[in-house]
Structure formats: structure tokens, C-alpha cells
Amino acid sequence: MKRYTRLVSLAILAGLVIALVGIVPVTPVRAAGEQWLVKDRISSGCFSGQTFFEVEFRNLTPGVKYYADTIVKDLAGTVYMDEYFSAIAPGPFDDDWGVFDENDRGLQTGSFPLPAGQVLAMIVTLRDKYQQPLWSTTVHFTCDGEDFGIASIPGCDQFMPISASSVVGTFVLNAPLYWSPGELVQPYTEIPAGNTAWVIGTDPSGWYYKIVWVCNVLYVPRYTMGPNFDAVWNGKPLPTSNGH
User: Fold this and answer.
1) Mean of the per-residue pLDDT values for the chain?
2) Exposure of 36 by Cβ count < 10 A (0-12 exposed, 13-18 middle, 19+ buried)?
3) What sign does the CA torsion over 59, 60, 61, 62 have?
4) DSSP secondary-structure letter at 244?
5) How would you label 120-137 residue by residue, b for 16+ Cβ within 10 Å and e otherwise?
6) Under a CB-based contact definition with an 8 Å cutoff, are residues 165 and 201 in contact?
7) What is the pTM for the complete model shown?
8) Looking at domain 160-227, which of 3.30.479.30, 2.60.40.420, 2.30.30.100, 2.30.30.40 is its CATH number?
């Protein structure tokens, strides 16, 4: 009799659990692998709103909040566009994206029109509702040209801020890449130990080296680099100034 009573009690409890589970609101499943891709060049021009690119947002979850982060800068670090906003997908996540005179976070240090004939980088970063980066794409372009991308810009090294104080260093450890101190390149990217790169200087905190990598000015943790002991550099110390 006691066993029967215990079984009935368990059955009632199980029924209550099932009933409660049935009334719990279902949280939408978030799409995996959200991306923001730059696919083509639509128009050109050096004034605000003249240069446009074809873009594609992939795997956004309808009804979920995302942040769109657009930086346009030259290869010396002068920022011409600083756009940052949030919206509920699908919202304004269009199939074209323009270069505008925006300064949402106060990062803008240059003014329009954009410098004609000069290589610029557009970095678009998709962020989740917590403003954490999900995906980032970088393209290079000239405002008065028709092409975009690294391969389409010949001789971009000539635009890099390599000064007389810059030194080629060696990576002694795998080095994670940062767009700016504390802001990792997305998707996560490392430079393997053994590679070399121009070192322009350090960031103001002294924790990062500012380097030239694939026609970009990027940052790596200072502990990941050391002198280059080849026949050219012979262990010359790396610069410790801010590289201005």
C-alpha cells in the first residue's frame, strides 16, 4: 500500500513538472555564425555618402538586438568615419553600406572629403546585444577608385607610417592581433612565432607594440615580440616610443 501511494505521488509530481514546463516561455534559438561580409564596390566618391559597398549580413536572428560598428581610417590611423548603432534584426541591416561623415563615439580625427588616391581601410564589426564582437571584415579602398580589397591596391606599403625609428622585430610567441589596444581582431587571428614585422612603437600604456601587418597598423602584446637577430638588424632593440 505504501509503495502504491508513493508511485501515485511520483506520477502526480511528474504531471506537475510537465505542466509547468509546458507554460515556460520558449527562448528563441540564436543563429550560429552571424557574419557581416563586404562583397562588392557599388560607387565611389570622396565626399560623405558617395562611396558605397555591397554587403551581406548572414544568420542574424530576427527579433534579436545587434550592434553595427563601422570605422574608416587611413593606414596611419586617422579616423574619418566612426559609426556605431544598435537595431533589432532584420531592421536596417541592409545589403549596401556607405561611407558617411559620422562620429558616434568621438573617435573621428579626420575630416571629409576623404583624401583622394590614398589607401583607406573600412572595418565593419557585427556585435551582439552585449556589444561583444561576433564578426569583423576589413577592406582597403581609395575613395576615387573602383576596386577594393588588399590585392587590388598595388604598393600599399608606401602608405604605411614606417619611420626612421621603426625596427623589424621577431615574434617569439604566437601573437593575437588587436585593432586597437584591448580590442581583438575578429575573427580571432594570431601571428605564429618566428614571423617578423615592422614595429612602429608602443601604445601609450606600453603594453602593446604597434606593428605593420598586411598593410594595416595593428597591435600585439609586447611580450610576444623581441629583437630580430638576422644579418640586417643584428638584434637592434625595438622602439619604446609611441611611434608618432
Assistant:
1) 80
2) buried
3) negative
4) -
5) bbbbbbbbeeeeebbbbb
6) yes
7) 0.55
8) 2.30.30.40
